[in-house]
UniProtKB/TrEMBL annotation:
UniProt KW Amino-acid biosynthesis keyword: yes
Species this chain originates from: Luedemannella flava
Protein name: Diaminopimelate epimerase
HAMAP family given in the database record: DAP_epimerase
Pathway(s) where this gene product acts: Amino-acid biosynthesis; L-lysine biosynthesis via DAP pathway; DL-2,6-diaminopimelate from LL-2,6-diaminopimelate: step 1/1
Catalytic-site annotation from UniProt: 96, 96 (proton donor), 230 (proton acceptor)
Top-tier EC class: isomerase
Compartments reported by the entry: Cytoplasm
Protein's job: Catalyzes the stereoinversion of LL-2,6-diaminopimelate (L,L-DAP) to meso-diaminopimelate (meso-DAP), a precursor of L-lysine and an essential component of the bacterial peptidoglycan.
Enzyme Commission number(s) of this protein: 5.1.1.7
Lineage: Bacteria, Bacillati, Actinomycetota, Actinomycetes, Micromonosporales
Pfam family, one: DAP_epimerase
Keyword tags: Amino-acid biosynthesis, Cytoplasm, Isomerase, Lysine biosynthesis
Reactions it catalyzes: (2S,6S)-2,6-diaminopimelate = meso-2,6-diaminopimelate
Family: Belongs to the diaminopimelate epimerase family.
């Protein structure tokens, strides 16, 4: 474990700079590493994300120039910055909607990008963010698939599969407040070979100005457990809801207001575009003392 942490920096430097940010409570440790000097390990990421012994977060966002990251250096012409996203358990993820909104906020506020328009490469492709009072980002276009089930602590939920950079299973439920979501979902490995986020959704009773539908959701993110929000999951929920998957009349396009435990995001979906909008804020900066991280 400590070997992985020691490999983060060269002696005698024993500290790594960080920022802490969140999008509707979906929180991240931001590691500025423009020149690709840090060699992240799953053990280090898990230790940093530990809420009692580390900084705490649902994941890590490494801010690195595309040209400096060997995984994507060949795509440097597409975007200057690459979002190297890690889940809190140390696994990699292709997309994080709230993460890329926080990432874009960091680029502008740190002066690494001029803004308000920011182009970012992710493992799910290039996205474009507009950084203002809120941050809106163009997400991979959601794709709605077939039916599936999730076993959560012995309770079976049925839903609709949808992808938006990450795989998701969107499950309508009668009541969000009574759900126990502590267990890791068990999914059909043939349908979800890399597992999936599982969203639990209800139609809200009140209308939201400017929105065609209003829903509320909770989510279990793969690699992180239940989180207060999930951007790619919200996009999947919007796509399923607009397709009539929650019992409403299908719409070819529209805007969905989505209440999550950490606040509200909106998702606008058309045949060729999906835009996720909501607050994204930075709350702290500091240094991580590598020697103090729990082995």
């Amino acid at each position: 474990m400590m070997g992985g942490m020691d490999a983060m920096v060269s002696e005698p430097d024993r500290a790594v700079s960080f920022a802490k940010g969140h999008g509707t409570g979906n929180d991240f440790v931001v590691l500025p590493d423009p020149d690709g000097a840090l060699a992240l390990t799953p053990e280090f990421v898990a230790a940093v994300c530990d809420r009692r012994f580390g900084v705490g977060g649902d994941g890590v966002l490494r801010v690195v120039r595309t040209a400096a990251h060997p995984e994507v250096a060949h795509r440097a012409a597409e975007a200057e910055w690459f979002m190297d996203y890690w889940n809190s358990d140390g696994s990699l993820a292709a997309m994080c909607g709230n993460g890329v909104r926080v990432y874009s906020r960091y680029l502008v506020e740190s002066g690494l990008a001029e803004g308000p328009t920011v182009t970012v490469l992710t493992r799910a492709g290039v996205v474009v963010a507009e950084v203002g009072a809120e941050v809106a980002v163009s997400m991979p276009l959601p794709s709605v698939g077939g039916r599936g089930t999730a076993d959560v602590g012995g309770v079976i939920f049925t839903g609709t599969a949808a992808t938006c950079g990450n795989p998701n299973l969107v499950c309508p439920v009668a009541d969000l407040d009574t759900l126990s979501l502590d267990a890791v979902p068990r999914l059909d490995t043939m349908q979800f070979p890399e597992s999936a986020n599982v969203e639990f959704v209800v139609l809200a009773k009140d209308d939201v100005p400017g929105a065609d539908l209003h829903v509320a959701m909770r989510v279990i993110e793969r690699g992180s457990g239940e989180t207060l929000s999930c951007g790619s999951g919200a996009c999947a929920v919007a796509a399923v809801a607009l397709a009539g998957g929650l019992g409403t009349d299908p719409l070819t396009e529209g805007t969905v207001a989505i209440d999550v435990p950490g606040g509200r995001v909106t998702v606008s979906v058309s045949p060729d575009r999906c835009v996720l909008s909501g607050p994204a804020v930075l709350v702290a900066t500091g240094e991580i003392d590598l020697a103090s991280l729990r082995a």
